Amino acid sequence: MRLTPLRNPSTRPWTGSARASHGKEKEDQRQRQQPGVEAQSGSLAGGLSVHPIESERLRLRAIEPDRDAVPMLALLNDPGFVRFIGDRNVRDEAQAREYIALRVLHSYALNGFGMYAIERLSDGAWLGNAGLVRREGLPAPDIGYAVLSEYAGQGYASEAARAVFNHARTVLGLQDLYGITDLDNDVSAKVLLGLGMHERGVIQLPGIDSPSRLYATLGAAEV
């Protein structure tokens, strides 16, 4: 369950921060470097590998351009994603691959973490994505999550967010964590409050057009 840069000549070069009814995953293009984490499977950009994170019903694994372009395209155009996170203007598989390479793989290479595909353990269904985002304007990573509308209302976003939260704390050693949501996204707010985060009010972050509601773990630095 650890994520750490590994150098392997046979491996090849792998989001988000936007608002969803599923969470806020609107990525800032200026991500700051964080300590890497150990891993042994799931080769990524530049030889970085990530071991899947598992919870009771879910597996969170590295997102790959070829493997995940089709479901990622569906997620980016999901009505809930577009409403609460934003329109990424990704309209076909080629653009989805490019999105994954430029945003997801880039975060892995730069930070040692990023957004991960959420799969259901029982049948391998692709449900959405969840992970950590490093963005300008926040002193530590924030938790992002987005679930396809057809799988909403089943607790998957909360379970995935909890898995990311626990991994960040116990494996990555990140005690300070944040979360941001659209001002009208009450469902996402409940997910963050369920993690024990506290509301910090409304904030305008660089790279995000509209204000966001900010949440943070107890003791996290003021923004």
Q: Give the strand order, joined by hyphens, for the main sheet.
A: 5-6-7-8-9
Largest sheet, if any? Answer: 5 strands, antiparallel
Shape: globular
Count every helix, treating DSSP H or I runs of 4 or more residues as helices. Answer: 5
Low-confidence stretches: 1-48
* Global structural class: alpha+beta
**Could you name the CATH homologous superfamily?**
Gcn5-related N-acetyltransferase (GNAT)
- CATH-derived architecture: 3-Layer(aba) Sandwich
Per the CATH scheme, the topology name is: Aminopeptidase
Distance between the termini: 31 Å
- SSE topology string: EEEEEEHHHEEEHEHEE
Under CATH at level 1, the class stands as: Alpha Beta
Our count of domains comes out at 1
Residue share in helices? 25-40%
Find the count of extended strands (DSSP E, 2+ residues).
12
Strand percentage: 15-25%
Mean pLDDT: 84
Radius of gyration: 16 Å
